[in-house]
Specification:
The structure is a single chain. The chain is mainly α and 109 residues long. It has one domain. It has five helices and no strands. Helix 2 crosses helix 3 and helix 2 crosses helix 5.
Length: 109
């Protein structure tokens, strides 16, 4: 029922809006548009076989405890790594937002 209302009004769920905000903030941090050293938050994943994805893939650290399970850094990594190259290579924040929205509309999320 609630999803029907959101669809009629052309709105997205709160969960999706939060994820979108997290991904946009990650883009700004990784591309230097925020005055934050991304090395303090994220570790880029380096591999010898770059067959898929983009060059800004993040390494997902695994912890024994669930203490950090819902931290920003942990929440965003899987979603960020799943983005295609044409979105991550956006030249500006507005371009990134537009491409991300179009991508999510196309895949039906």
């Amino acid at each position: 029922m609630d999803e029907e209302r959101l669809q009629i009004l052309g709105l997205t769920t709160l969960e999706k809006r939060r994820l979108s905000g997290d991904i946009i903030e990650t883009y700004k941090i990784l591309t230097g548009k925020e005055d934050i050293n991304y090395g303090h938050l994220f570790t880029l994943e380096f591999s010898d076989y770059d067959l898929r994805g983009h060059q800004l893939k993040l390494y997902k650290h695994h912890n024994r405890l669930n203490v950090r399970k819902f931290f920003f850094i942990k929440r965003v990594i899987s979603a960020w790594n799943s983005l295609p190259l044409f979105i991550v290579d956006a030249s500006s924040v507005n371009s990134f937002k537009r491409k991300l929205d179009d991508f999510w509309k196309d895949i039906g999320n």
